[in-house]
Amino acid sequence: QVQLVESGGGLVQAGGSLRLSCAASGRTFSSYAMGWFRRAPGKEREFVAGISWHGVTTNYADSVKGRFTISRDNAKNTVYLQMNSLKPEDTAVYYCAAGVGVRSLWSQGEYNYWGQGTQVTVSS
Question: Strand pairing of 118-123 and 10-13?
Fold first, then answer.
C-alpha cells in the first residue's frame, strides 16, 4: 500500500512558477513509476508528466513540454513537478500517481495509487 500526499499548489500569475511535491509512504517507493495528472474544470483528467522507477525515462504531455520538469528523489520518497512559464490553461487540480510495472507512463489505467490532489490556479 502506498499513500501519496501532494503539496505546493496555489495561486500564481501567468508566466510564474510553482513546484509541486508528492510525498509517498512506504519503503518501496523506488519500485514505482510516478506520474502527474491534472483535471481542469469541466474536463476529464489528463496526463501531464511521468517518470520511471529509476528516473531514467520521462514523458510529457505536448502541452507542457519545455515548461514542466518531473524529477524524483528516491531517498526522500518524493516526486516533484517544476512548472515554469505557467499559463491560465494550466489551472487544474494536479494529482500524483504511483504504479508498479507501468509500461506507458501516460496511461492512467496503469497507476495503482492516487493522491488527493492540489489546486493550481494561474491568473491572467
Answer: parallel
Interior/surface letters 1-19, b for 16+ CB within 10 angstroms, e for the rest = ebebebebbeebeeeeebe
**Residue whose grid cell is 512548472:** 83
Backbone torsion region of residue 117, taken as left when φ is above 0, otherwise alpha when ψ lies between -120 and 50, otherwise beta: left
Give the pLDDT confidence of 3-59 residue by residue, as tens digits: 999 999 999 999 999 999 999 997 788 899 999 999 999 999 999 999 999 999 999
Contacts of 65 (CB under 8 A, 6+ apart): none
- Dmax over CA atoms of the chain, in Å, equals 41
